[in-house]
Design goal:
Number of strands: 6
CATH architecture of the domain at 57-159: Beta Barrel
Number of helices: 3
Oligomer: single chain
Mean pLDDT: 76
Structural class: alpha/beta
Low-confidence stretches: none
CATH superfamily of the domain at 57-159: RlpA-like domain
Radius of gyration: 34 Å
Largest sheet: 6 strands, mixed, barrel
Order of helices and strands: HHEEEEEHE
Strand content: 25-35%
Distance between the termini: 86 Å
């Protein structure tokens, strides 16, 4: 037995009848759209050419400092540096009571000459050490096993590329 919408309306309230009518129209409108006869295909998009990555060029500025370096890793919970950024230990950063925050410095192991560039983003109390390195920086410099080494520290300035 088939029933019209009007007959359904007698069985349902006005709200349900309106909802039923909207659903029926929605279902019918989906059938009314015809597939596109012609679809334009554009040429494939190519990525722009990549520039070769070049290392930044630094120039040493200021006096070379020689002293003791150590390293530290983040403890439990969130540790924020003096600049307010979270300290993770995975970036090449350092803490020093003698160097300005935000400066880039070259830290060189006096014994073997290996060096790395780090950014000073944390301060530390005056305690005899010249600089404390993040775990990643200390690993690269070979300082993790020894714990403490004699290093030279030189401030750097970024030289503009030609």
């Amino acid at each position: 037995m088939e029933m019209s919408v009007r007959q359904w309306g007698g069985l349902l309230g006005a709200r349900q009848t309106g909802l039923l009518a909207v659903l029926a129209l929605g279902a019918l409108s989906a059938c009314a759209t015809a597939p596109a006869a012609h679809v334009a295909v554009s040429a494939p998009v190519t990525a722009p050419p990549q520039m070769a990555a070049t290392a930044p060029h630094y120039q040493e500025v200021g006096t070379k400092l020689v002293g003791t370096a150590s390293w530290y890793r983040p403890g439990r919970g969130l540790h924020r540096t003096c600049t307010g950024e979270p300290f993770t230990g995975a970036s090449f950063t350092a803490a020093s009571p003698y160097l300005p925050l935000g400066s880039e410095v070259r830290v060189a192991d006096v014994a073997d000459g290996r060096s790395i560039v780090v950014r000073v983003n944390d301060c530390m109390p005056h305690g005899g050490r010249l600089i404390d390195l993040s775990e990643a920086a200390a690993e690269q410099l070979g300082l993790v096993q020894a714990g403490v080494e004699q290093v030279s520290v030189t401030r750097l300035a970024l030289v503009s590329q030609p």
